[in-house]
Amino acid sequence: MFKKFQNHIFWTLTLLVLYLSAISCEITYGITLRDTKEKFSIFTDGSVATDIIEADDGSVSWIATANRGAGGGLSFYAKENKDEINISNYESIDIELDYNPIEGKWNTEAKNPSFCIRILPWDSTGMFGGFEDLEYVDAEEISGTLKYNIKIPSDFSEKIKASSDFDFILGFAIKFNDYQRGNNDGDQLKVKLKNVKFNAKKDAVEDKAFDDGLIESQRGSVIEIYYPTRDYTVEESALTDADRYKKHAWVYLPSGYDANDKTIEYPVFVLLHGRGQNENTWGLSNKGRGGKIKGYMDRGMASGNVEKFILVVVTGVASKNWGPNGAGYDLDGYNVFQNELRNDILPYLRENFNVKEGRDHVALAGLSLGGGQTFTIGIRQCLDLISNFAGFSPGLQMQPDDIIAEVDSNPDFNGLKIHNLYLTCGDKDLSVYGRYPSHVNSMKNWDRIEIFKEYTYPGGTHDFPVWYNGFNDFIQMLFKKNETENQNQSTTKVEYQTFTKIRKTKIITKCRIKNN
What we know:
By secondary structure, the chain is an alpha/beta fold. The chain has ten helices and 23 strands.
């Protein structure tokens, strides 16, 4: 009898342990969709958060660091299996997180912490690679718990479509908002995300499987290259082996590109980033769906609205400080990039890819400081190599009138026209917009330019929604025959358009800022 009792106790305790183990394996925190809770699935590409911890209870914590408005954040998939959902099916999002500044690493004069909730369309490549801001939320206390219900505007799905053509979203991101809030670079905030819940609309249909309508043969490909170059901040007589290296870049090849078919050649477009960024910043990648700009090119070329070309995304720092994959802060390296562009990048592309000869088949564009390089290096120093240019919120280090005067007085550039020049900037861009209208006014009256277009982005700040929109605008212009192509250059007519006038149907929703 006693032995039976012992066995009974043993099995009772065993079952209790198993039951408690099962309970402990259930997640307390996570993401809820359609009443189903799953673990958070982190989208690590492009994240600048540090000390990321995925706890057993399902919460995720990280350290966010202030960095000139790009405070560290983290991205998450909407579903653990990484499938997309349709944002048009949801009316709001509930978030719950804990936050507290790191002791000794917070400016006491700064405002209370603030967060930006970002939605990642299907073609996003992470924290900064293709997002659309949903809402900024300011905390009422210096530290504590933030619980907030974010309403999804009725036209937000149209904003996603304007950015990515479809309303499929890959996930969301939470960014520490250190933009103009009194934070010093290096200020740190610890964030612990507990719960996120996507609240479906009443009678919302099931989320559809992603389909952009393209077949695989219509998609371009993305490859990595390493081209030989050198540190151009070092005098040639002083160069050492350490000053010569191979440099990483991303290359997009259009659908149908055949390396062995030398009878078909393509124009080439060189794309630059801003200060503190690198060749990865634009999000072009050989992972997943390749990023937002790949989607723009794939769809535009498939429809015929965009002429096929080869794109190369490089780091515009011509010194050892370029990386690899590092942060470009070396202004001396930025300023001598002309040598790398002229001596290394373009010759390498022509030697290794089927690239058309001639300046008419070359384009250069960049965002922020890279947009400034487009003017000070591209137009001012390389007009004999390039005839198509774009500046996305360009950070000019020279006055436009000075650039114009220098180019017009250069005998090597006599008779050389700028076929296309495109400019864009957000009207809420506190870094650039104060000077932007005068830049537009100078350029639109320059008789060297054949086609000039600009788009002022309503509500846009110094951030990627403006720059992605600008990239998509610019590629619609590139490498197309225009009415002046076969005319004598001295009689070329200048065409000036503003996208604010000709794109009346474009819907852009300004992000509303609310206090918690």
